[in-house]
Amino acid sequence: MNDLKYWIAISQFAKIGASRFARFYNYFPNMEVAWRASYNELLKSGLEQKIAEEFILIRGNINPDLELGKVDAENIKVITIKDEKYPKLLQEIFYPPALLYVKGNLENLNQQFNLAVVGTRKASNYGQQITMELVKPLSQNGFTITSGLALGIDAIAHQAALEVKGKTIAVLGSGVDQQSIYPASNRFLAKNILDNDGTIVTEFPIGMLPLKHNFPTRNRIIAGLSLGTLVIEAAESSGALITAYCSLEQNREVFAVPGSLYNRNSMGTHKLIQKGAKLVTGYQDILDELNLREVKNYVTNQKILPQTLEEKIIMENIDKDPKHIDQIIKECNLTASVVSSTLSLMEMKGLIKNLGGQNYIALNI
Fold first, then answer.
1. Structural domains in the chain?
2. How do residues 238-293 score in pLDDT, each as one tens digit?
3. How confident is the model at residue 322 (pLDDT cuts 50, 70, 90)?
4. What is the DSSP string of 220-248?
5. Tag placement on the chain: N or C end, fewer CB within 10 Å?
């Protein structure tokens, strides 16, 4: 904890970005030593002469204890790259953030199956519909949905995950303190994310404004936390394409949804498809393309399992083809009353579905 305040203090100097921070933690034994380092020691660490001079001037106006107090007051957790809780996927990128400011559930940052979903701020009705239709089942299939809390596709992706009780992460290009969350119109969404076991994260310190050059930096984190990036509606100049290119640079998958040839917000996604992004027409395309046996195992393990002997017997005799209750009774060798009551309980648990006429199918198999 004593050293953490120096990580936070150093991050107040905007010119100490990920690459310069790396020189610090690779050269100095800890950040307190880096914070107190002489001009010559700063140069030896690899810091440029002008930056070293500015750092010495600026640190005189920063109180590490005060900065740590601000973080605690906002209930913000700080993870450094030396922390075992630091996201493993993010650590693989070129110059990962030296530290992360986090609100909410830390565990979401290390979920095994994380998908970035991004797109235009000016989503069409088509874009809104497709986002919901893709994100909801992906979220239900165990993916944590990561986006940038921006207006449009980003916000819809977060909302879609929340509506099915899924996990979602919002990565900001500003501070995560209440007054800095951007855009202000999505602060209620941010609260909703936190209230539903989600996560808000940034590499920028408290009070950082949403400066234009922060967002490309932010986008590399969205991509870096994820196995792949799904782009839904993006113009040729869209920031969503930056996230996609970050994914490519990080050797992650890129998925794109085709749109109308007459919609300018489809030109970016079409260009991605031309360059080799995987064309997506349904959520199953993403599951198939990732082709991860672990995902399928993960989803299987998340299914609701039968809890009683009767439920187990019935589940062994029901599949995706409709089966009438009389046939179930016969095949399971159980009494009609036991089968009827057990089927009712199983339907309430989401194990099976009554299609009508007492015909049943199994769910989630």
1. 4-73 (no CATH), 104-299 (3.40.50.450), 309-362 (1.10.10.10)
2. 888 889 989 988 889 999 999 888 888 889 999 999 988 999 999 888 988 876 54
3. confident
4. HHHHHTSSEEEEES--TT-HHHHHHHHHH
5. N
